[in-house]
Each structure stands twice: as structure tokens, then as C-alpha cells.
Design goal:
The protein is built from 13 helices and no strands. The chain is mainly alpha-helical.
Length: about 300
């Protein structure tokens, strides 16, 4: 693992993603942009369309899809449990513990993981990475919403809040299309493809906007622990679960990369909506994203060897 190889990996695979996020950061610095409204556009429009498009366009076998979905769920639940255990050890209050579990659960598998898998390992890995992202979206919009709701609501009201999440309906409709073999009319399909193609760049711009708005937090211990779990424990859990699920080749590369992503920017939207320590969550997103090239670059080298 020589320095020249690591630099080349960073320049070819990570820098293009960071440049778009940097553009969003600069836009937020020099112009007043309502990132909360932009986040809602992503949450209610672009994200469900992207999920529908990824599911219906995938040419993977049902067995491969289910295996990757099981792997993704196992990784996410494992990291969330590690965050919960760490929070109990640190004796965090209920709201802070909720923020830690959420940021351990949900990684940046869309606007960071998808282009990275594509740049590093090609279209087959991108297909598997897409299945991982869909699983993340499903758990984010179900388990994630319940988790943040429990910061202030009881269990019944937390589950009732799920009916407001559009991605759930997008997943259901996509599965219906897959099972029946239905096809969208050409104009609608082109509109869906066009919107889905704009989702990831918009997510990257939003990431830059959210990073620009980051406010420092006094909760330095949960910040450090959570960022460490995402960037260090994430790859370890990914390698372990890939062996348990029998992942090979492109699906193994995609799965481990997705397991190693920093915390998702979409967690800041939920944290703001439900008032779950948004300053801590945005700080975790910022720190884990800024430090992620230090862990992802050598990881790409190992997976590509």
C-alpha cells in the first residue's frame, strides 16, 4: 500500500464527490439558501423517485437482492446496537442517546456511497450498492423515524408517524411493478429517470449546504464516539457480515464500502424535524464526512487488491 496508489485512489474516486459537496458549501457561504426546504424536496419527491427507479431498473437476481438487503440490515442494526451500548456506558440522556443511535444507524449510502461504488468498482457494484441504499432508505424511513419520534413521542405515535413517509409507498409500488411486470408509459418513465438522475447530485449539494451550517457542539464525547463507530467499526462490521452472508466479488466490494460510509446528511433533516439534538447530529455528519477519506482511501485499496 504505497502513498502514490492511495493518492491516485483518492483523486479518482473521492475527490469528484467532494468537489460537488464543496460547491454546495460555497453556495451556502455566499448565498442565502433554505436547505431545510431543499431537504424536504429531497425527502418527499426526489428520494422516493430514486428508490422506485433503482428497484425497478435493477437486473440483479432476487436471491442477490435479498442477500444484499439482509446484509445491509444486519450492518445497520449492529452499528445502531453498538451506538446504543456506547450511549448507555456514557450514561447519555434520552435525546442524546437517540441522536447517537440514529447517526450510527444511517450512513451516507446515497449521495456518497453510490457514486463511490460506481467510480471505484463499476456498474455491477453500483447495482449492489443501490440495493444497499434502498435498504437504508427503507430502514431510515421506518426504524429511523420511529427512533427519532421516540425521543419525544410514545411508541404508538412514533409508528403512526410512518404513514407520512413517502419512500414507504415508493418501495411498495416498485415491488408491485416488479412482481407484475408492469411498465410505466414512456413519458412517465422518462420523467422518473430524469428526476432520479438529479437526486444524487442534489443530495451532494445538500450535503455541502448542511456542512456549511454546522455549529459546534459541546457534546464532544458522543460526537467522537459516534464518528469513530461509523468510520472504524463500520468497515469491521462490514467485513464480518460479508463473511457471514457469503458475499463475493462485486457485491462484497459494494457492501463493505456502503457499510463504511460516514453518517448520512438526511439524519440532520430528521433531527431538525423532531428536535433531536440537531447541532450534535450535524456535527457528527460534518466530522465523519471530513475524516472519511482517511478511512475510505485505504479501504478502497484493500478491496481492489
Amino acid at each position: 500500500m504505497d502513498l502514490a496508489s492511495l493518492i491516485q485512489i483518492f483523486l479518482n474516486n473521492l475527490l469528484p464527490i467532494l468537489l460537488i459537496s464543496a460547491a454546495g458549501f460555497a453556495l451556502g457561504k455566499f448565498h442565502v439558501i433554505d436547505s431545510k426546504s431543499l431537504g424536504r424536496v429531497l425527502f418527499y419527491f426526489f428520494s422516493p423517485i430514486l428508490i422506485f427507479d433503482l428497484l425497478t431498473e435493477s437486473e440483479l437476481s432476487l436471491q442477490g437482492i435479498l442477500r444484499m438487503m439482509g446484509f445491509a440490515a444486519a450492518v445497520m442494526v449492529s452499528l445502531a446496537l453498538l451506538g446504543w451500548i456506547a450511549g448507555l456506558v456514557l450514561r447519555l440522556d434520552r435525546v442524546t442517546l437517540t441522536a447517537v443511535v440514529l447517526t450510527c444507524l444511517v450512513a451516507n449510502n446515497g449521495n456518497y456511497g453510490l457514486p463511490l461504488a460506481s467510480f471505484a468498482f463499476g456498474s455491477e457494484s453500483l447495482a449492489y450498492a443501490s440495493v444497499y441504499y434502498v435498504t437504508t432508505a427503507l430502514l431510515f424511513n421506518t426504524v429511523g423515524v420511529v427512533i427519532v419520534s421516540l425521543g419525544h413521542l410514545n411508541l404508538k405515535n412514533a409508528f403512526l408517524s410512518l404513514i407520512k413517509v413517502p419512500a414507504i409507498y415508493a418501495i411498495g409500488i416498485a415491488l408491485l411493478f416488479i412482481q407484475t411486470g408492469w411498465q410505466l408509459p414512456v413519458p412517465v418513465q422518462r420523467a422518473v429517470s430524469l428526476a432520479a438522475g438529479g437526486a444524487v447530485p442534489l443530495m451532494l449539494v445538500l450535503l455541502g449546504l448542511e456542512l456549511q451550517r454546522t455549529q459546534w457542539t459541546r457534546d464532544l464525547l458522543p460526537l467522537s464516539v459516534t464518528a469513530g463507530l461509523r468510520l472504524l467499526a463500520g468497515p469491521l462490521v462490514g467485513f464480518l457480515m460479508s463473511a457471514l452472508f457469503g458475499l463475493r466479488g462485486s457485491e462484497r466490494q459494494a457492501g463493505i464500502i456502503q457499510a463504511s460510509m460516514p453518517t448520512a446528511v438526511m439524519t440532520t433533516i430528521l433531527a431538525t424535524e423532531y428536535n433531536i439534538k440537531p447541532e450534535l447530529v450535524t456535527a457528527i455528519v460534518f466530522v465523519s464526512t471530513i475524516l472519511s477519506p482517511l478511512t475510505l482511501t485505504p479501504l478502497l485499496f484493500v478491496l481492489g487488491s
